[in-house]
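Teaching note: in complex prediction, the entire set of molecules is handled at once rather than each chain in isolation. The prompt given to students was simply: 'Predict the structure of this complex.' The entities are:
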Amino acid sequence: MLTSSGMPLRWRLTLLITLVCTLTLGAAFAGYYVMEVRRLHDDVAKTSDDIANQVAVNVTGILEKNPAATEEELPLRIWLTSNETIITAVVYSPTNKVLSKWVRPGSGGAIGSVRAAYVSTFSTDEAVIPKRLTGPGGRRLGTLVLTAQASPEARQSLLEPLQAMGGLFLLAMLGGLVVSRFLQRGISEPITKLAGIARRVATDGDYSARAEVRGGGETAVLVEAFNSMLTTIQQRDAELVVAKNNAEKARERLAEINAMLEEANRTLEAKVAERTVELHKAMTAARDANQAKSSFLAKMSHELRTPMNAIIGYAEMLIEDATDRGDNGAIADLRKILSAARHLLGLINDVLDLSKIEAGKMDLYLESFDVCTLVHDVIPTAQPLIDRNKNQLKVDCPENFGTMRADATKLRQILLNLLSNASKFTEEGVVSLEVSRDQAGPREMVVMLVRDSGIGMTPEQMGRLFQVFSQADKSTSAKFGGTGLGLAISRQFARLMGGDITVASKMGEGSVFTVRIPAEVAPVKATPEGETTPPMPVPEKAPAPAPAGPPRRGRVLVIDADDAVNTMLQDLLGREGYTVNVARNGEEAVARAREMSPHVVILDTLMPGAEGGNLLSQLKIHPLLANLPFVLLTMDNHATGGVAIGAADYMSKPIDGGRLLAILAKYSAARSENAIMVVEDDAPTRNMIVRLLEREGWPALQAENGRAALGLLERNTPSVVLLDLLMPELDGFAVLRAMRAHAVWRDIPVVVLTSLDLTAEVRGFLEKQAERVLQKGSYSRDELLREVRDSVEEFMRRTGRSNPPFPRPSAVASILS
Amino acid sequence: MAKILLVEDNEMNRDMLGRRLEKRGYQIAIAADGPTGLALARSGKPDLILMDMSLPGIDGWEASRQLKADPATAGIPIIALTAHAMAEDREKALAAGCNEYETKPVELTSLLAKIETLLPKSGKPGA
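The expected output is the structure of the full assembly:
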């Protein structure tokens, strides 16, 4: 109850104090009462003991004489009547037989057994006094038991103090209440007040409230702590309010700024749009200007070449004449003219090259060539330059170095430039050319080192080295000649091929120029704007390889009104690599046939509505479908009807998948007699195309150059020739000419695949001679296949043959004829 | 003596080249434009034609095409002379039916080698 949390502290305190008072006083009173009773008891016992002893002597005497004395012989009444305290007396024999007894009349006493006398319970106003009666020699005679009672006065005196005590108790309780009231003021009141303030703070949020500190002790400490806590909270609250205000202001400011930004943004957008237009104009202008400059330079170069042509030619002629006449003086002067003219021509060529590089019109003509052969081809041209300064040329190209695929002309020009440069700045020294391969990187590189023991360069000179019109030193051009364009052009060429030229040099010790060109240069397409030229996909990668799966066998058109059959056939044939389209009726069939140009048509003759048989004859007169082999689905086991009206084969329903596939395969197999010839010198490209064709179900003939192609044509009649233009031995132009001049080959469609950036003129020529011209790297896989397909159809049309992929079975043909 | 038809519009080049070739024993016929070149090729039956590509009237490419299309003249080897040192011009010339090409300014030694290769064996100078 004390811990009952529902009770106010005040009441709990009062209750506690009252309880403590009650318990204390109760215990005191109980103790006092017990002591009083004992005292009274003892008094009674003591006063009765003398009488008990006298009576015991009397009884002993009698019993000594006669142990079995009777009541008359033991006159207890006589002995005891005078003494008022004894209320009962009993004499027991040793066998506890009552020999004599007496009870004071009106006393209410009772006789018990001997045993009861010894174990009698405590009584407030009665005392039982047992006496053993023993004779001489310790002989046991019996027992005397007396019961004494306090006098009424004595009993009254026992009760009187209790009344006084009751009053005292009430007084003590009153005192307790007063004390508790006082304590309450000291303990519970401050706490209650504290609670009140806390409540106020909680409900009103008034942190300014403070509890009153009274007196000292823990309560005061508590109140002080509470107050200090409130102070802290008040401060925090104030800070919070300030922060909140600040945040609010910041938010407003932010909104303002946002609005400003939005405004600015709108303005900016407008400005950007404006600037973009301006920029675009400026760019177009710049591009036009650059184009104009480039074309001017190209044209100028061309115009300059023609008179140069004459100057060089006449100079050479005059030298010949002078040699014939033996006019040595004239020869020396004419040689100077010739040399100056050649130098001028070199300049013009360089300017032309540079203008083409700048205009992004510099193309790469990639071919595979033996590296050492190319290196040794350069030497005769370089030798006179080497000899001029009495230098020695050392060439180190390992035997069986192998081939690379790059623009040979440009590589030759690079080497010539570097050798010429090296010998120009070296006198009576050594110029060496070392060729090696670097397979460390992701692409294999061919590395060519041109080393000289010449004058060398400072780092500052090296920095300017590859800039246009910049030689190591202004004075050098005077001393050593040269256009200053060679190195810039060489580096541009190297970079065009995906490589670079770097230089290492030390003043006075010579220089090392390092050319690094990929062993397989990726083709690039010229970009007219002079933008950076992104590498075109290499032939091995483009067109994208077909997804893995069963090989594409052919295209099948399924005509059935039953979607379940359509789905089933689509699944079955699709899994086997056929491309399947479905049509539900004749109209759809014609539309699908136009989209996909199928190789074979599967027609359900049991279609509801239109009769399959009628549909077949309707479809067979349509030009798109007339020549296609039809496979009929019928309930009838005898296909005579179907075949008679132009079906190639029949199947009875339910469809036996295995048999259907066998029928389709039969037609697919018939395709091999009309192969596609792939004429291409680059093996990876050729293999890629062949794989692509075979995946589509086209067998392929391969030729690695024009001569091989013509050889193959003698023995085979392909339905299409896919022809590369630039090839060793015999190029594509020659193949095309030979084919067009041949009585049989002239009908074979040719699809030209070229990496050349064709001029309109060449393209016009090719388009007249070939069916199609496809730019390598720019056509897609599907485009190529579509061209092949169209060309095959063209071939069929020209030669008047049946559709080659699914030629009509001869049996059917004979019935029809 | 091998007959060479030189079709070239630039007078100096024509004169210079013609004289240099004559000096080496070839018999030279001259045409200054495409139509004349075509006419001379048909009438004169040269053993070889040196054809400038940028000609007035009918240009060298067209002239070559016409000559190669005509069975009467298709067998005459044509060497294209082009002022453009561009591979595309080489392709263009080859596409037009020319058998060889030579970039101007003409490197005489190189041109002579090509002439020798293309001439019928019996048509060699001095033969």
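Point out the following to students. Chain A touches chain B through 32 residues (CB under 8 Å). The mean pLDDT of chain A is 78.
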